[in-house]
Amino acid sequence: MEAKSATILAIESSCDDTSAAVIKDGKVLANIIASQKIHTEWGGIVPELASRAHHQHIIPVVDKALQTAGVTKRELSAIAYTGGPGLLGSLMVGSSFAKAMALSLNIPSIAVHHMKAHIMAHFIDEPKPNFPFLCLTVSGGHTQIVKVNDYLDMEVIGSTIDDAAGEAFDKCAKIFGLTYPGGPLVDKYAKEGNSSAFSFSKPKVDGLSFSFSGLKTSVLYFVQNQTQKDPEFVNKHLNDLCASLQKTIVDILMEKLLLAADEYDIKDIAIAGGVSANSLLRSELEALQDKGFKTFIPAFQYCLDNAGMIAMTAYFQYLANDFASLDFEPKARWAI
Predict the structure, then answer these.
(1) Of 241, 257, 129, 258, whose CA–CA distance to 185 is shortest?
(2) The CATH number fitting domain 7-120+303-319, selected from 3.30.420.40, 1.20.210.10, 1.10.3660.10, 3.50.50.60
(3) What predicted TM-score, i.e. pTM, was given to this entire model?
């Protein structure tokens, strides 16, 4: 892929974070994120509220990204945006803004796949994995093992047949009485708990597929049964419940990842997506270095939804002349 100079503005709006980043010749100069707090009181993302908040945040976020990077609109070579997957209303805000801005500046626009971008976050900073490598991409909506052959050549070799790991964290956290988003809170309380205190079912799924719906049911029935005996059960054992849940989910993820590594004989292994911020998953991956693996974890700011990863992916698409037409429509579901 021939290198050429490019300065790209990238916009991420797939869910409830509005983000803008600027990348120049492969180096991220700014990565600004505006989060939405309104969803906490509803216990989950409300799509209509998310899209409205994107409308409010997008101009200030883009303006701050350009100022932070020290770049003017006239210096831009292209404008990138998340084309999917994600919430359609949220995607439309970002894509419409990006396409309109690109048209006004007479420069191309680039539609970026959100999950590919999570993987491409590994090329923002050192160290960077070698091809081919395996990437476990784990978020609230996706759980996949991806074989990465090149910057833009990726193959899903394993995925969930029902719920995603991030959803399991959040839904079980709700059962424990924790607020949304529950995943980070489970991680927080688990640090003070005993991961062997309780045993939850691990769905048996063949090959490299995942399943988490059975785990959620197991946790729900267990808590209901124990609460009938002692209404204060959850409050008394919250730390142990969180630690046991977290250990179960991470064990499921790591077992499949190691199975894939053995099947494909690949020693470079990475994680990406919101759940890759989980402290136990990160430590379990790092521990694989003692077994001869090379492991890669993005900086925390690039684990969650952010435009920096969109910008990095867009840079390689720019080098490949992979531009989007103005009639490209965002996709709520978009396979890698």
Answers:
(1) 241
(2) 3.30.420.40
(3) 0.93
